[in-house]
Every structure is written in structure tokens, then in C-alpha cells.
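writing this on my phone so excuse typos. first protein, seq and then structure
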Amino acid sequence: MRDETGTTDGHAGYTGGPRPEPLRFFGTSWVHHDDGYPARRIGVAIGSLAAAVASCLVLRLAYEGVQLADTGTFVSVLVIAMFAICSALAFRTTWDSFAKRPDPERQASLRGLLAIGFVGSLLAYFFRSLTEAPGEKLHRAEYDAAVQEHERRTTRRTGNPSKKKRKR
């Protein structure tokens, strides 16, 4: 969350105080659901589903290559199990990252697994984009908290504090 005051972000209403963090493919349109937000959500949903389907076709070609190599049943089962398990773990990790900020060290250690299970990440992106921009709930909670904190810090006291009655 950026907290720069006194400048504008190109959107009306962003003068002073915290600015919303842009989301991939959405920018800051998630705040007020403007600038083609519904169309972007539809586009992201269709795009991520199309990418997942295309990825499955590529994986099928790879599996057929393993079959043509005549490596045996064990290797074929191992390849299928590897992609299924990695995709399930990638789905869960991606889905959880929409609700809370992921630990950078854990993300670094899971990078290879997430690369193998990319289909799961694409499917998580698709399913989340059916209800909201992926990550919108997390960013909205952070942005609302920052706005409330900014308003609390900038509200001015009324009256002279030296004339305040003291409790004894």
C-alpha cells in the first residue's frame, strides 16, 4: 500500500492519503469497479481458462511422447502423478495467496513445484475471477485499513486541550 500524500494517481478521489495497489490486468479499477472492470474480469476468466486448456493439450502431447518412448508403465504413472499432485498444490497455493500475503521464503522454495503445476495456478485464477478480481479481497481489506488509519491520523481535535477538564 502506497501512502503518498498531496499528489494524484490519475483517478479522481486519490488526492492525499493512501493509494490503492494495482492488480495485474486490473490496475486500480478494482476500487470503484470502473474503467471496464466487468469486461476485464470476463477477459481474465476466459483467458485463464483458455490457457489452462491449451496447457492440458501440451501436457497430453508430452505424455504421448513418453508413451512413444516406450519407457514403461511406471514412468507413465509417475509423470501423471507428478503433474496431478503439483497442479493440486499449485492450485491451493495460488488460491491461498488471494486471501493472504504469501511468505516470500516459502514461495521461493515452491517455485519449481508451482512451475510444474502451472495448470492448477491457471485454474485457481479462472475460478477466482468468476467472483472478483484475483486478489481483490486482500487488497481491498488492506486499502480500507490504510484509509481508516489515514483518516484517524488526520482528524483534528476540537477545542483547546489546555482548557480540558481533568479527571481527578
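second protein below, same order as before
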Amino acid sequence: MKKALLFLLLGTFMNVQAQNKKCSIDYEIKNDSVDLIKLNDQLIFEKNFSEKTESILFSLVRNSQENVLQFQWLEKSKEFTINRCFDPNSTIRIDLINADFVELKLYDNEICAQLVYDDVAKNNIRVLNTYFNIEPEDLQKLTSSKMSLLTVNYATGKEYYNIKDVLISENSKTETKPAFFFINEIPCLTK
């Protein structure tokens, strides 16, 4: 009886905590014809090597009943950078700690990173920004376990990114919890 009461109290406390979570919303439009919400970008991966940095940011977007993952890849280097592209066969595979996985398909047809030159810092900057579909059944999987590995199938080949529980950015000095991204953000998207 005490265990049942403990689980009931714990469940109630966790439910209240989930309801009190502050959602970090970039913008929201809701009227007769539009129901759109975009959550703020969050750093998922960062690698600094010599004078080259690579970052991946995620954000979630819901447009009516459609859910998408906004994927942003950024690379900054003094040297020439290799371009990254996605084609219609490109996917993102998200491996979860519970041995399950989710594979997201590219929303666009084909897209390549844009090259920008920073005259002040003398850096080449590549920016790849696109969207991947999240199927309704995948939302439940993504909230059931934290991420452990991200596999991105670019048009030029696969890249593997180990996902950390806590990431303190060397560049922006901010702290994120990449492994818990979907667990924390999907409730904000579906509220």
C-alpha cells in the first residue's frame, strides 16, 4: 500500500513538474487558418579542432498536425570547408539509450550548405539549414528515452555524432542537455 501511494505521489509530482515546464518558444501563430509553433534552437553537438568549429542545432516546429525537426549544421574555418548537401535519400537516424531508434526523412528535395565569408574574423562559414519529418508514432518513441547517437546521411556520406547528456559550449559558454532534447521539447510542441 505504501509503495502504491508513493508511486501515485511521485506520478502527480512529475505531472505537475511537466505542466510547469517553461517552454522556450521562438514564435507562435494561431488564428483561423494557421496553427504554427516554432521552439528555440538548441545546441546538440559541438566540436572545436584547431581553428575549425562544427555545430549542430535542433529546433522543433509544428504546423497544424505536421511535426518537423529543423536541422542546422554550421562549420567555421580559416581553411576552405567541404560543402555538405542533402538529397532526397538523406535521413537522420536518432539512436536512443533504450536500444530503439527513429529515422527521419528529409522534408525538402535537395539542399546544400551556403558559404559565407566573415571579413572581420577571416573565416569561411558553411550553413546548412533544412527540415526533417517526424511521424506521429515517432513522437512517443522520442519521448520514451534519451538520445545517444545521431547519424546524419548527407549526400556525400554518413557522419556520426555522439550525443552528450550535458554540453557546455566552448564558443557561446551556454549549457544544453542534448540527450534530453526530445524528452524536454516535444511536450512544448504538443501542448
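The longest helix spans residues 2-20. thats all i got for now
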